[in-house]
Every structure is written in C-alpha cells, then in structure tokens.
Design a protein that fits this description.
single chain; about 425 residues; Rossmann fold; 6-stranded parallel β-sheet; 19 helices; elongated; binds uridine-5'-diphosphate-xylopyranose
Amino acid sequence: MKRICVIGTGYVGLVSGAGLADFGNEVICSDIDAEKIQQLQQGVIPIYEPGLKELVDRNVKAKRLKFTADVPEAIRNSEVIFTAVGTPMGQDGEADLTAVEAVAKTVAQNLNSYKLICTKSTVPVGTGEKIKRIIATFKNNGNEFDVVSNPEFLREGSAVGDFLIPDRVVIGVDSPRAEKVMREVYRTLFINETPMVMTNIPTAELIKYASNAFLAVKISFINEMSNLADAACADVHVIAKAMGLDGRISSKFLHPGPGYGGSCFPKDTNALAKTANDLGIRMEVVNAAIRANTNQRESVLERIRDLMPELAGRRVAVLGLAFKPNTDDVRDTPAEEIVKGLRRMGADVVGYDPIAAENFKKYYDPELEIKESVWDAVEDADLTVILTEWNELRGLDLPLLKEKMRQPFVVDGRNILSVEELKALGFSYRNMGRSKI
Ligand code: UDX
C-alpha cells in the first residue's frame, strides 16, 4: 500500500485515482479547479463514465480516496505523485506540456521527502528527462526523487474496466528503487498475473504513441477499404471478417465509420508525427492515416450528396453526436464536420444524442436544434444520418422510422442497420462499404 497523490481529475486522473485506491492504496486526487474538487467532495462525478461513480463511492467510503484543491499539500503528504493533467494539441500538432511542466515545478517546490513522479498524461518521448531536469533545477533540498512513465490505455466508456483489468501495464523506470515502488503500487495486478512491461522511460513513452497510432492506422485502412468496397459493389464487413480471421491481423478495430475522433487518436497521431519530424524521421504511414481520417468526414458527406443531391431546405436528423457511444465526450467528434457540411449544403439539421447533445451545443453549435428523443428528431425528416453506434440506435425500429420520416432516406455512418431490412422496407440508403450489396 502506498500513499499516492493524483494531480488532475479529468477522465484519466479520476479513473486512475479511484482505481489505484481500489487496489488498496491511499489516494488523494487533487486539481487546481476548486469547483471540480468541491463537486467530487460532494459525490458528484463531473463526467459521464459508466461504473465510475460506484468506484469512487466505494473507495471514499473505505477512506482510501479523498479530494483536495490544495495540490502542494497533497504532494507533501504523498510518496508517489501521478501526473494526469491534460496535454492538448499545440499549434504544430505537438503535445502542449505547459501543465506537465507546471506540475513538475510544484513537485520540486514541495519535495519534503523521497518522491516518485509518475507520468500518466500522454507525453512525447523525452518528457521524462525534461521532468527530471525541472525537478532537479527547482528543488531546494537534498531529497531524492525518481521519474517514471506509466501510460494509460483507457477507453472512454469502458475506462473503469480497462483500469481494473488491463490487458497490460507499461512501466518505464530507470532505477531499482522506482521499480520496487511501482511494483507495490500495482501489487494487486502483479498478484493476478496481469502482463507487466517493465522497460526504460523513453520506450514506455513511445509504447503509448505506437499503440494509439497503430490502432488509428487500422481504422484509416478499413475506412479507405469501405470507400473502395462501395465503389466496387463489395461488402466491407465480409472483407474485415475474413481479414480478422488471420491471427496476425486480428478482427479488432476494423470497423469502418466516419473516422476516429476523441481525446486520444487525433491528438496522439499528430504528436507522434511531429516528434518524428523533429527527430528527422519519416513517418509516412502515420501521416497517411491522419490524412485518410480527415478525408473520411468528407466521405460521409459524399455519400449524403450521392443519396440526396439537393439538400437545400431538406430536414436532416443527425443521430449520435458523441465521437463514440457511452461517453458525453465530443472532442474531435466526426459530427462536428458533418453537421457543418450539412449546414453548408443548406440542410435544416436537427440533432439527437442520448448523452452528448449538451456538450455538442456548448462546444460546436449553440444554434443546433436538439431533440429529446430519436422519434422527435426524425419526425418529418427527409434524411436520417447515423454517426454514433449507441445501442439505442442499433435497435432502431425501422418500420416506425419509415412512418415518422417524410421520406425514407438513411445514411448509416456506422453500419448498424440491417441492409436486408432497409431494402425490404423500401428505404433509400447508403452506409460505409455495404451500400451496393
Ligand atoms: C483510445 C484507445 O483505445 C485507448 O487505449 C487510449 O488510451 C485512448 O484512446 P478512446 O479514444 O476512448 O480510446 O476510444 P476507442 O474505443 O479506442 O475509439 C477511438 C475512435 O476510433 C472512436 O472515434 C471510434 O468510433 C473509432 N473506431 C474505433 C472506429 O472508427 N473503428 C473501430 O474499429 C474502432
């Protein structure tokens, strides 16, 4: 059991803090956002993440988890400091390290005993070294410290499960002492034989980017295949299934759609490309995946135009505004560009999302007309466009959809509707790589 402080209470910090407490550690989550901390102290979870409230409540009740806005105090009272602050995309695609560097300075100024500073935030290779230099420069006593890289692999919507039962834990260390401390922090996972990758700091930093970029490449690849499948009257699902049966390829992340979004893939692919460029290394594959992803938003609009060339004055219901289901996150959501594109073509757009509608309005489109239910959204619509595979939309009652709409036109950007049923009901439709089967 270790005394841990987690700095930053966003998706990553909050899930990690509560998860580390669940592993038996004594955790204090801190943030400079006093309002957020006050909410957390009152048991209010500021984000939508299934299972997180239960995890937080359980550990608060067991007195293993606390919240404070006093970051220096939290640091002084802890041996292990997890940094989980944001690293947003900077102007040239690089990760903006302002918050990470500020935390390193605060740690240095509060180094009242040996401490281990563990980076959870996604940071470019070389950041561990930078943090070491900052702490060494700003500390004003002889206390020792170690720096560790421990990247997160949490998927929004299933982050709690990903933290508690991970596929693997990656730990980058450069001292036996740091390794020993990290083994204690993750004792529970060592006991249940979770695969642990112990390596040096730069390797751990790169593993995170390599993993995310590779998944992004897979998605962009299958998205381009879906465009080709539509042009060639083939079925991309069968292609993906057959590819996935080859164990070397695996069937995961071969689902075509409007392109990846969210807080990680767009940002991390750009940051990796930027790092490589700065180091004089060519990363053609990653750069192509980024371009293909940008084009994929346009591919959805092309399908819309193909199905309904004249959109001016037509009512279009966009179902799903989040970048993926089970989250209220709209960062880099494909819906942003697609709703914009529909508007540009003169369509009268209404939106629906079970969780993310408010965020979409707040960050992108305050004017967007939002409906409270699918059925209100599709009422008298000339076209329905599906952009997120919420379960509620997977099970859409197609006969009722036809009845409600003014015209039975559907673009299924996630391939969740049955082509057979759409055909049988007389819908005109497009999807991603199965339109012509
Ligand atoms: C991702 C990584 O999975 C996680 O390990 C990392 O730490 C953070 O980034 P997340 O962004 O929450 O997690 O979502 P994920 O489920 O990976 O999906 C990312 C995007 O790819 C979504 O927009 C999703 O719709 C898209 N996607 C995913 C596809 O278009 N096709 C697929 O087959 C899989």
